[in-house]
Every structure is written in C-alpha cells, then in structure tokens.
From TrEMBL:
InterPro entries reported for this sequence: Flagellar_assembly_factor_FliW, Flagellar_assmbl_FliW_dom_sf
Domain of life: Bacteria
One Pfam family from the record: FliW
Organism annotation: Paenibacillus odorifer
Protein role: Acts as an anti-CsrA protein, binds CsrA and prevents it from repressing translation of its target genes, one of which is flagellin. Binds to flagellin and participates in the assembly of the flagellum.
Places the protein is found: Cytoplasm
UniProt name for this protein: Flagellar assembly factor FliW
C-alpha cells in the first residue's frame, strides 16, 4: 500500500506495518489507522496516520533509554487489544531544538499487538512515570553497548 507522508512523500508500507486504533489516539479520535515505520538501525519509529499525511508521531523503544521501565497492562486493556503473549511497547518522543532537552512520555505508552495489528495509547494511572522524562537520564544501550 502506498501512503503519503509529510516527511518522506509517498511511501510503500506492508500490511504488517499497519495498526488499527479502535478509539484513535488522545486528541486524535478520528485517526484510527496508522503505519509503524522503523528508522533503520535506531531505537526510533514513526507512527504515521494513513489518512492524514501531516500527522505522525516519533516513537522510541522505552527499554533502550530506561532499561528498568516496567508496568502492568490492565486486563481490560489487554483484552481490548486482543493480546496474547506478544506485545510491542513504544513511547512518544517530544523533540526539542537542543537534542539533550528532548523527552519521552513513559506515562502513556503506545501498546501494540503485532499479531492482531491493534494498538492503543494506555495511560498508566498508578505508575511512577511522567510525560516528560529526559531521553538522556539513563544511558541508552545501543547495539549491545553502553551508549555513553
């Protein structure tokens, strides 16, 4: 399938990259179909709307930046997503002009079911996380090495 993006123009995506968000994303309720696009050899991805070429989110693997990151997915959320044993967790990145000021939202991860191709942003009400954790607070592990 060919989609239009603001950053890359026309882009071909496969069915495996497509995810359906039943209730959209907070603030974007009408946007329910997204493509998950990996940025080669980095811990980053883009979540690109299929309908709106100007709507995309920069995501990261939170475990690369915060290896101790953990949370319990509520049963009702897991059921809504049709979760089995396989889950992908990504968090939204807010880029700042000075890269060292960029943040990651650990309070509301995006949880993806790669088998059923469903996704949802989950707000962790009883977790010690915030929406703006520094990307550089813990040293990232990249390609099996300490990133510092």
């Amino acid at each position: 399938m060919i989609i239009e993006t603001l950053s890359w123009g026309k882009l071909e995506v496969t069915e495996e990259q497509l995810y359906y968000f039943h209730k959209g994303l907070p603030g974007f309720d009408e946007e329910t179909e997204f493509a998950l696009i990996a940025m080669a050899e980095t811990p980053f991805w883009y979540l690109q709307s299929i309908k709106s070429k100007g709507l995309s989110f920069l995501l990261a693997d939170p475990f690369v930046f915060y290896p101790s990151y953990e949370f319990e997915l509520p049963d009702e959320e897991a059921e809504e997503l049709g979760m089995d044993n396989v889950v992908i967790v990504r968090c939204v990145i807010t880029l700042k002009e000075q890269a060292e000021q960029s943040t990651i939202n650990l309070l509301a991860p995006i949880v993806l079911n790669p088998i059923g191709h469903s996704g949802k942003q989950i707000v962790l009400h009883k977790a010690p996380y915030h929406t703006k954790h520094s990307l550089l607070q813990e040293r990232p592990v990249i390609n099996g090495r300490d990133g510092g």
